[in-house]
Amino acid sequence: MSSIPFYAKKFVSGINIEEAFATVERLNEKNICVTLDLLGENITEQKQAIKFVEEYDILLKKISEKKLNCYVSIKLTMLGLDIDFDFCYNNLSQIMRVADHYEIRVALDMEGTQYTERTIAIYERAAKEFKYIEIVLQAYLLRTEADIERVLTANGRVRLCKGAYKEPAELALKKMPIIVENYKKLIQKLLTQGQRVCIASHDDDIIEFCMDFIEKNHIPNEKYEFQMLYGMREKTWSRIREKGHNMTVYVPYGVQWQAYYARRLSERKENVFFVLKNLFKS
Which Gene3D superfamilies does this one have (predicted)? Predict the structure, then answer.
């Protein structure tokens, strides 16, 4: 039985692979893809990072064995980015060898701005060696337009989100209407020039804008997917899928759920409002 309390269980699928897979199978039955996130970050001991590498290897193998419509997301600080750059890259490489073998995508989640450059550098290096690597970029960062050029030069596989971390005004846009407009500008370039684009947003304005842009520009179905967080707007997932678009749900799991849940709410005051607002939207 899961030890996750009711208030977090809506957003975190469970504490182990079995509980996470039950959620994946339920969503797959609705023709919805899943990206699984094993919770953990800011690891400071090599033994801990190596243990997470082993867990991701097992996760990838089991996804393949079960033939699930599922890929994985991972934070580089879980693999030791706070310890050493090369140590982290070697850990990621071990995971990527398994992922490429089983043809399963691996998305590098983006963390705070102190990690942005190193995360992109690792992605660029990995894209030269591995096929199924992709990265997350955040539309509210001032640097993201230039970073998109780097991603397009690497392999053009990216998830674009608004951005959740609290960042200073010299690094990030602060007003939501401006962030939304920047998102629209950036996503147009990604949809027309990227190899695989994840439209990660719960914003109706962004979703409708992207659907219209995709239709008008005849963007092939295999080049994009919409993406939302587990527990948010489930009826909307189904509506997007029923319209013929690819739909992926970001599903976190793991024993470190409490730190994840608390951090996501505390990073920015807007996150609390975001969760409360979307609890009542379908």
Answer: 3.20.20.220
| Burial class of residue 54 (count of CB atoms within 10 Å of its CB; 0-12, 13-18, 19+) | exposed
Annotated binding site for FAD: 110, 138, 162-164, 201-202
pLDDT tens digit sequence for 250-261: 999 998 877 666
Q: What angle do CA 132, 46, 154 make, to 5 degrees?
A: 25
Q: What is the CATH number of domain 6-279?
A: 3.20.20.220
Q: What is the pTM of this model?
A: 0.92
Q: Where are the domains of the chain?
A: 6-279
Which residues contact residue 73 at a Cβ distance below 8 angstroms, ignoring those fewer than 6 apart?
A: 35, 36, 37, 106, 107, 108, 109, 136, 250
Instruction: Quickly list DSSP for 63-123.
Output: HHHHT-SEEEEEEGGGGTTTT-HHHHHHHHHHHHHHHHHHT--EEEE---TTTHHHHHHHH
Residues in the chain: 282
pLDDT value at 43 more than 50: yes
Taking only the tens place, the pLDDT of each residue in 234-275 is: 999 999 999 999 999 999 999 887 766 665 555 445 545 555
Query: Which pLDDT value is given to residue 268?
Result: 45
pLDDT digits (tens, 9 = 90+) for 168-220: 999 999 999 999 999 999 999 999 999 999 999 999 999 999 999 999 999 99
Return the active site residues: 109, 159
Inter-residue contact 83 to 47 (CB < 8 Å): no
Question: Annotated binding site for substrate, which residues?
Answer: 75, 263-264
Q: Which residues are annotated as a binding site?
A: 75, 110, 138, 162-164, 201-202, 263-264
